[in-house]
Write a structure and sequence with these properties.
homodimer, about 375 residues, alpha/beta, TIM Barrel, 2 domains, 5-stranded parallel beta sheet, 4-stranded parallel beta sheet, 15 helices, globular, glycosyltransferase (chains A, B), TGT (chains A, B), tRNA_ribo_trans-like (chains A, B), Queuine tRNA-ribosyltransferase (chains A, B), TGT-like_sf (chains A, B)
């Protein structure tokens, strides 16, 4: 994996780059659609490639481990073989879902024991086990096993949790380095900075993570309920410490405005369920602002969903038709809205890239942030 | 509208033809995907055109009248303007849904009063009103307002109902002939043969319908629970009376085997919710037989869903992946299965057409019927 920085913005920490994997290149800043169970909900693989132009998608280790399970994935040749997606894949470590979805969980030094949300069966995730699982899934980018602390989180818990995450990281690295990918291409491990919203912990964690000198680094434990200002401060502080010549991935963030601010702070990679989840509830991100397509006001608006954005779903279907589909509970509604929102998110990061290259990123970001917050 | 018969099968009543409308040509025999509320469930309009190659789709008058409603459809320029589908559309008369979906309904000579299944509001469908509604929807082919009798149905009820359907037909024709389409293209009215499974009633109804000399004719009231043999006998009897030089549309039928038998009896047009409804339950029609994709046996079958059928969904995705999507309740499962089943239905009628042209239709049909019934 190589990461080449192409342009840097003189007025912010924003930069453009290219991350090269055995499954192809990723142009940064990039947004990665979330494909929880090996599918980006309601979106065909060819739509991801040709309409949305996703460079890389996510898979969730917790979900894939439980279903279809590792035997099936191994026999399929990994997740790429299973779902047919031939561009890069990143998998999370499963930690976040263990904490948020499973019925009961016990966190110990050895690892986390939890019950499946599907059938109540009991499982244990350890740092070593999670490396093995991600080897079997075959993600191009694997994430270290961490604890993502909730917000608010008292200092003592945040510190103890961070220290454990760091010890887990050493175990992850050891296992990762003594194993190889199963499918003939390289995999890479990204460690994760934790430390809640405490500056000294975040600083300490960023220094620890930086010292491991892995291919790329991630910032976790944000967008869990803290004020946006705290999130931005934390990113800024962490990014001053994380090496500039390696990609920085901000996990689970966020709104279009969050993404633009984080790009300005030097983040290169993003993922979030927001575009797809909101889509299924009829909430659209468009180049003109936010639309709740279920509102009566769209019932006779026969203009395209988003002519400026372009692409099939955004220009072929009208707002009135999409509203009708949502009112009638038709599956096509969620399909169209998912295409719209993901196409928008990928457009947004492409635009950011272009404006960083053009040297007017900050001015564009400020104007765009105001525009995107308009509720139409 | 012109209907040209191209080839006739020497061993059966099967024929190939082309039906020309202002929205393009329909090559018969044809299957018409059902787009109940202006959307073929889980399928994008471009997929209907390029993957499935549907020549014509259905809309349901009852559903479209209630939602989005006639004002919206009129302002959109009809259903074509509303959903963007530019090939032909056929609408049913709404009668079938009034009987099957609405909470209470009263059938009188004047028409049918019913309560909306959505909000309980009260509405009346009359033959004249239903013509006006279909004028506003803008279907290329409009259906006469009829009563579709249930099965079994006693003789007296079947006869009285048929007589009323015939009187309603005269009112439909009068209204249709004294009005014009709103959107600059021609619309056509197909009357419907009723009479339950009573040969004398069916004969009488077919003669009445034939005497109206409309552009095409339909057979209704079948596939409502009667034995397949009764259905085939009825079709045979009716088709001996309906003019040979006009298209014959068998409403709401059916399985692949039903369709092939009916083609042999001289039917040209079909519609049925079966391919899409079964798809959403994980039941696939394939060129090798019927598959319940939820079965454990497919969990490690990484072969394409239906390599023989061809096309994106059938060749890109594996059976194991599709099974996983259904087990995980993922929306993409229904999307893929709907593409598979509709692509299969359109392939089936295209194959029938080719074999009628080649002169070996009956032998092919018999072999195919056996093969398609295999439960894999």
């Amino acid at each position: 994996m190589t990461f080449t920085i192409e342009q840097t913005d003189p007025q912010s920490q924003a930069r453009t780059g290219t991350l090269t994997t055995d499954h192809g290149a990723i142009q940064t800043p990039i947004f990665m659609p979330v494909g929880t169970a090996g599918t980006v909900k309601a979106v065909h693989q060819r739509e991801l490639e040709t309409d949305i132009n996703a460079h890389i998608i996510l898979g969730n280790t917790y979900h894939l481990y439980l279903r279809p399970g590792l035997d099936v994935l191994r026999q399929a040749g990994g997740l790429h073989g299973f779902n047919g997606w031939q561009r890069p894949i990143l998998t999370d470590s499963g930690g976040y879902q263990v904490y948020s979805l499973s019925n009961t969980r016990k966190i110990k030094e050895e690892g986390v024991t939890f019950k499946s949300h599907i059938d109540g069966s009991k499982h244990t995730f350890t740092p070593e086990g999670v490396m093995d699982i991600q080897r079997t899934i075959g993600a191009d980018i694997m994430m270290a096993f961490d604890e993502c602390t909730p917000y608010p989180c008292d200092y003592a818990y945040a510190k103890a949790s961070m220290d454990m995450t760091h010890r887990w990281l050493d175990r992850c690295i050891r296992r990762f380095d003594e194993t190889e990918g199963h499918y003939g291409y390289q995999q890479y491990l990204f460690p994760i900075v934790q430390g809640s919203t405490y500056p000294d912990l975040r600083r300490q964690s960023a220094e620890t993570i930086a010292s491991k000198e892995r291919t790329g680094n991630a910032i976790g434990g944000l967008a869990v309920g803290e004020p946006a200002e705290d999130m931005y401060k934390t990113i800024d502080l962490v990014n001053e410490i994380l090496p500039r010549d390696k990609p920085r991935y901000l996990m689970g963030v966020g709104t279009p405005a969050n993404i633009l601010e984080a790009i300005a702070l030097g983040v290169d990679m993003f993922d979030c369920v927001m575009p797809t989840r909101n889509a299924r509830h009829g909430l659209l991100f468009t180049t003109a602002g936010i639309i709740n397509i279920k509102n009566e006001k769209w019932s006779r608006d026969f203009s395209p969903i988003d002519a400026t954005l372009g692409g099939y779903a955004s220009t072929f279907y009208s707002k009135a038709y999409l509203r009708h589909l949502f009112k009638a509970d038709e599956l096509l509604g969620g399909q169209i809205a998912s295409l719209q929102n993901l196409t928008f998110y990928l457009w947004l990061v492409r635009q950011a890239r272009a404006h960083i290259a053009a040297g007017d990123f900050v001015a564009w970001k400020n104007e765009m942030t105001t525009r995107l917050m308009v509720r139409m």
